[in-house]
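Q: Hi! New to this. If I give you a protein sequence and the SMILES for copper (II) ion, can you show me the bound structure?
A: Yes, paste them in.
Q: Okay, here:
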Amino acid sequence: MLSNTFVALSLLPLTLAHFQLTFPKARGFSDDVESNFPCGGFNDVQKQRTDFPISGGPIQLNMGHPQTNIAVYVAIGDNPGSGFSVVARQQLTVDGLGNFCIGSISLPTSLNVSDGTLASIQVVSNNHESGGLYQCADVKLVNTQLSQTDYNNNCKNNTNVRVSQENISGNPNGSSTNASPSTSATGATPSSSKGAAAQAKAVSWVLGAVGLAGMAML
Ligand SMILES: [Cu+2]
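A: Thanks. Here is the predicted structure of the protein with copper (II) ion bound:
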């Protein structure tokens, strides 16, 4: 049974294993250790950080389970270790496989971050059994918005992917302590500079049409 499962999994494209963070670029991904807290086994901060708009930016994921609970946490600082204490997106449930984009992740305004602030983002999901799965990216928070092209390239939704539930309490890994909220995002994103209106449109979970039709998994 286990070996059959393993063979079946290894025949699937890599991107269908667990889930992957593709924007901002993840520290790394390894199916085997993605369940290691924090950051799925990747403890070293990236030298090459991704610029991430303070006013809000997309989180692009590749979903490998038919249904997944996801939450997004942020840590401020150049090397936060496991201190991802800011809830940037409360737990939600995603149905479907492939590309899934959370259109706009922004920080609580009470944090008062400024242009150039270093931070890390950790996306947490539930696992097949107990515990969680983790992916991290290290970013530099900037006042510049993504261009519309960059936004479109990094915020895609597969046809059959949808959010079935939002604002679920607790952490997808089943613990309430690992990333206990000290500050919560309001979800409101400032919309001042150019491109904001266009991006706001995409914030509402626009479901694209990328293909990869209903690939049933196990
Ligand atoms: Cu999995």
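A: DSSP finds three helices and ten strands in the chain. Let me know if you'd like me to explain how to read the tokens.
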